[in-house]
Amino acid sequence: MHSKLILITLILFTGIAKAQTLSGIVVDQYNQPLPFSKVVDTVHQSFALTDIRGRYEVQIKPNSVIRFSYIGKEDGYFTVPPTETPNSFQKTIKLYDQNKELQVVEVTAERIKSVADKINHNILDYTFLTNDEFLILKKINGERYLCIDGIDTTYLSYPISQRVKNIYIDCFDNVHLLSKDSAYQIYLADSLTFIERISIEQFNDNIKPCIQSNADNTLFSMYTDFNKSYYIHDIHHSEKYKTIRVIIEDQVAKKAAQDAFNRILYIYHKTTPPESNVFALGVWDNDPYSLINNYTPSELFDMIAFFKQVESRPVYCPEFIHEDESIIIFDHVNNNVLQLNDTLSIISSFDFHLDNGYRNEIYQDKITHNYYCASKEKGYLKLRRINIFNGQVDQVLVLDEIGYPENIKVHNNYTYFVHNERSGFQKLKRVKL
């Protein structure tokens, strides 16, 4: 199945009469997409679900009456004209909140709210579907489930036999579940279906580096030279050629890593006889830990561990796609922020320095298009908003009620995080910025 598919809509239709196609997007009253909305031909009983972006495509017939429904929303309808032409229609459907109030947990006396507040579960990972709906990977009583949750309820729950622990959405909008050894591409409809399984090494080499893709080219980021050089690959689809541009390079750290690696190789070659030397045998797997054997001195293990943990640690250069499709790169080597267009030419750049080194993390709110820097001091979260056009930094949150938040994300002016409860379970919580 084609790798660029995302959460494929399940379409079931009956009859042999000439069919027409109705496609479009289902949104709420604020024009936010409504994923997994039901699209039903009430006359001929064909059925579809919208994908993660609220898009749908369903086979219809003349005089069909299409009902669009979503939990907590008033139904919407579209009537197909009584003619077989044109053969397709495009329609954006807007669904409004029902008059009755939904049971949403909002404790006004506390600024921290629980999300999907259930008992006996742990939150392994999560991502956002709409403003108040989430795709959450849970562990409940020892079993894993992929759930579509609201603020206080679970709409759908899919059991998973694989020992996955992360959710990842790539630049093609494919959804993947990641385990220690494998990556599984999935789609959701009335059931969870696994499209493809690849090794985690293949995923890290071919899928995770993707930044952006369109009809003309695909951009990939890459770390080389012991993770001290940051590249962007511009692969052109039609001409089949690749442009490599070095965006960021830490020359001092790269030389230090190379010197440390050369020292490891020198000790290995000096102490390991040819009959056990993986280089001489041509079987080295490029893992420094595989250089440890009965001949090498014990201090070599400490040297390799230090090299893996410190010397080969990647330079921190997170990149994001801005609302105008430009690329925003936070360069922690040269302490600035770059904005690049689709030809990788620099549109703007300004100096920007973050303290605390690698303890800082950068987050993007894809709804408001704001950027935030998070740091933890004595276990408490501090969040600062970054203006990528003038460099101004404003502190917007000090989370001193709860210590050691995990899996922090920012979405629609809320900060989300996972917290370990005293009960031993984990809860997904959010606080307004």
What's a concise summary of this model?
The protein has 433 residues and is mainly β.
Describe the protein in words:
By secondary structure, this protein is mostly beta strands. Among the domains are: 20-95, Carboxypeptidase-like, regulatory domain (Immunoglobulin-like), CATH 2.60.40; 251-311, no CATH class. It is 11% helix and 44% strand. The strands form 8 sheets. A 4-stranded antiparallel sheet has the order 3-2-5-6, with no helix packed on it. The longest helix has 21 residues, at 251-271. The radius of gyration is 25 Å and the shape is globular. The relative contact order is 0.09.
Task: Give the secondary structure arrangement, pairings included.
Layout: E1 20-28, E2 38-41, E3 47-49, E4 55-60, E5 65-69, E6 76-79, E7 88-95, E8 112-115, E9 121-130, E10 133-140, E11 143-149, E12 154-160, E13 166-169, E14 175-178, E15 182-188, E16 192-199, H1 200-206, E17 210-213, E18 217-224, E19 229-236, E20 242-249, H2 251-271, H3 278-281, H4 298-311, E21 319-321, E22 327-331, E23 336-340, E24 346-351, E25 361-365, E26 370-377, E27 380-386, E28 393-399, E29 406-411, E30 414-420, E31 426-432
Helix pairs in contact: 2-4
